[in-house]
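I'm stuck. Please check this protein.
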Amino acid sequence: QVQLVESGGGLVQPGDSLRLSCTVSLHDFSRRFMGWFRQAPGKEREFVAAISSTGVNTRYADSVKGRCTISRDNAKNTVEVEVNSLSPDDTGVYFCAVGPVGHGGTNSAPSVYEYWGQGTQVTVSS
């Protein structure tokens, strides 16, 4: 059974930074692109960032572009996302997601991803 373990969420103040981490129990992790999504209360799940299987290509949502960095360590089966200059609009449950095997590049469509973590809550409030 595939496991995605997310960590790093919590309560932060506006202007702070946050780093989320996700560890994946897949032997072919290095062959899959990875993504982060978030869902605010009463809203649909939205794309945040994605990274290709090799880590060379990245993609960001306009809402976080310039203040977000996604990275991965294929030796440790982990993917991380750091978001800076947080605002209350960044509040939500953040999900790590695993793309299919053998597909190059990145993707922002939730329907493409095969496995999802349970999510970690991020609350930005003063």
About this structure: The chain has no helices and eleven strands.
